[in-house]
């Protein structure tokens, strides 16, 4: 079983990804696809006049502020526009995909973080309406039920809290927890870069091989989203992952090339 | 097995519906829920500056003009915001719901109507980018797979065309075809009225009993959406339905009351 995660960037080539998934499933491989939708989410948020807001924790980590309106936009973008576009595209390639959010069948459950602190200038503000949390539990029965009946699950956030509220969640962390629950040995993560870069934005600075035990040292090279991906990667290895492929989602045969080692191999 | 269809109106009381579904499933009843989202769809369309457009056929029947932008808005509203809101609400009532659009697992397949004629003043215009069609085929295996594993399917449009394009589709017709495919005997349709009304808008003019063979005569009482519901009802009986309950989605115990005959019973 291969777990594939694709980022929410606009340059990710969905057709190339679908082609490779068709090849893999024709070879009898079981595939689970997880996707992001942050760019489309931000676009919709802007269009409806409620642009995505971020908050910065007292320790300096920024994250999306997810109030009720932001959850609505999240639902429009992730399980709505983006998930169904991917599912329909896979169908057009002959792959019988079924889209699921973390809410469906309690696929992704997590604990809501009720109190969040936000640094605003010199002041620190307590925010209590932030609907976010970290995924801790996966309904693998639903995933296996679909896979065993020849359906390919296409999964995205949001998740469900222990109190059955809809919560935004770190996708890379959720994927790591899912890889553990499904006992995944190989995971492919595709984004808008050739792999892990030594120098931010410099695509010629690709790091080909990374030792999973030294992931911490790479945290210094990375910023923003990439830092979260590294933390997700660390968690995935803690949960039993053997090989992680970070590669380019813009090129032809993105998955097959990733597995051949075109990008970064972490193991 | 009971098929329940709820309209997209804002006065439909989702909590009351979830309460009844919980009662029914606790009694061992298998339930499939289908929902609309037209009001939310129109709201989102307006907010993003692409309001829902309608076209009128040369024979005078109006329908939504579904171009690429309208499909995007459709995906945001139906399988996105509304479907996931319903799924999460059912989860909070202890019902393990899974949301599906007609795209997922090829649940609803239909033939796209490539050429559509629109009357504009005295002229008739040919429209070729209208993404609509009528559902003809249902993947009952996916529905049964979920039901047999204690998941409650929450279904909504759009559908998938024979060429795997995303198409808008008449929900009432699709529900009728689904009732036939699933060999449903009892169907409950809930909307923002006490049932079929003799006089449009006059809630005291409820018709309690309707003979399924005389549905055509009622077409004269009805307008707009209600006319489509009647045509859907006719088709459902053609496909083998035994009893159809049209009732109020705003009241306490809407489903249990419908089955008791509070609204209109068609048989």
UniProtKB/TrEMBL annotation, chains A, B:
Keywords: Amino-acid biosynthesis, ATP-binding, Kinase, Nucleotide-binding, Transferase. GO terms for biological process: L-arginine biosynthetic process. GO terms for cellular component: cytoplasm. Gene3D superfamilies: Acetylglutamate kinase-like. Pfam families: AA_kinase. GO terms for molecular function: acetylglutamate kinase activity; ATP binding. This is Acetylglutamate kinase.
């Amino acid at each position: 079983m291969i777990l594939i995660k694709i980022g929410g960037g606009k340059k990710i080539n969905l057709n190339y990804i679908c082609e490779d998934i068709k090849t893999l499933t024709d070879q009898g491989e079981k595939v689970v696809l997880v996707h992001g939708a942050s760019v489309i989410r931000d676009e919709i948020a802007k269009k409806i006049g409620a642009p995505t807001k971020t908050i910065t924790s007292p320790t300096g980590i920024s994250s999306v502020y997810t109030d009720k309106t932001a959850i609505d936009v999240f639902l429009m973008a992730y399980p709505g526009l983006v998930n169904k576009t991917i599912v329909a595209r896979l169908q057009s390639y002959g792959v019988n995909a079924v889209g699921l959010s973390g809410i469906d069948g309690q696929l992704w459950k997590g604990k809501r973080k009720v109190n969040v602190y936000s640094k605003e200038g010199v002041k620190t503000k307590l925010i209590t309406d932030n609907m976010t949390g970290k995924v801790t539990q996966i309904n693998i029965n639903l995933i296996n039920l679909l896979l065993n009946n020849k359906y390919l699950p296409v999964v995205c956030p949001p998740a469900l809290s222990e109190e059955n509220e809809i919560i935004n969640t770190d996708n890379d962390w959720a994927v790591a927890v899912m890889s553990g629950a499904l006992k995944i040995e190989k995971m492919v993560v595709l984004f808008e870069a050739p792999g892990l870069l030594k120098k931010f934005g410099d695509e010629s600075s690709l790091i080909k091989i990374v030792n999973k035990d030294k992931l911490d040292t790479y945290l210094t090279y990375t910023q923003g989203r990439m830092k979260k991906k590294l933390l997700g990667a660390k968690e995935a290895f803690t949960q039993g992952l053997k090989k992680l492929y970070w590669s380019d989602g813009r090129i032809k045969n993105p998955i097959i090339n990733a597995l051949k080692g075109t990008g970064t191999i972490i193991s």
